[in-house]
Amino acid sequence: QTARAVARTYGGRMRALIIVDVQNDFCEGGSLAVTGGAALARAISDYLAEAADYHHVVATKDFHIDPGDHFSGTPDYSSSWPPHCVSGTPGADFHPSLDTSAIEAVFYKGAYTGAYSGFEGVDENGTPLLNWLRQRGVDEVDVVGIATDHCVRQTAEDAVRNGLATRVLVDLTAGVSADTTVAALEEMRTASVELVCSSGWHRQTGMNC
After folding, report:
1. What is the Cα–Cα distance from 94 to 84, expressed in whole angstroms?
2. pLDDT tens digits for 75-119?
3. Annotated active-site positions, please?
4. pLDDT value at residue 202
């Protein structure tokens, strides 16, 4: 099944792609790196080049200014983390392998607190992601990005809670570990997120596409 065919699968009225947190600090060499992040940035760019059937493409960014105890010198990697994606630093930038030309709006989350779901983010005009999508009649979303077991999961589950038909393109995500990724996928499936692949076979989960 081609990327274009995957993008077309929905028969609904208006479809958007949400690209979650494909930023330098979440890719190799970053302060909170996820293995495979750089390759994922390239894969999403390749997918965007083929999948021209999205009506809208948006992205989210972790964008911290002073997030309080979300940052820690001795992080527990559950509720506290090493400093990452700090506003004004290269770590907060999109990975250079991500083609951003199709992205219409970027939603920034976590300025003064920890934030995981893209639906906690606002664009440069202060418009929340859900409002932006509703203003454009979007009723179906595909979610890709980093990390499967944190921000991708919470973004997808919030999309379902907000009444959007939601899919995660599993091979266009990267998780922190195999175990937590598999658990997150099961949690998303239980929450009525549809799990599909853009193509091929997913290394972390062994999911056939």
Report:
1. 13
2. 656 666 667 788 899 999 999 999 999 999 999 998 767 788 999
3. 21, 109, 151
4. 47
Which of 188, 145, 179, 163 is closest to 26 using CA atoms?
145
Domain ranges in the chain are: 3-208
Calpha distance 29→133 (Å, rounded): 33
Q: How many CB atoms lie within 10 A of CB 9?
A: 15
Overall fold of domain 3-208: Rossmann fold (3.40.50)
Contact 165, 139 (CB under 8 A): yes
pTM score, two decimals?
A: 0.87
Q: Tell me, letter by letter, the H, E, C secondary structure of 145-202.
A: EECHHHHHHHHHHHHHHCCCEEEEEEEEEECCCHHHHHHHHHHHHHCCCEEECCCCEE
How far is residue 39's CA from residue 172's CA, in Å, rounded to a whole number?
Answer: 10
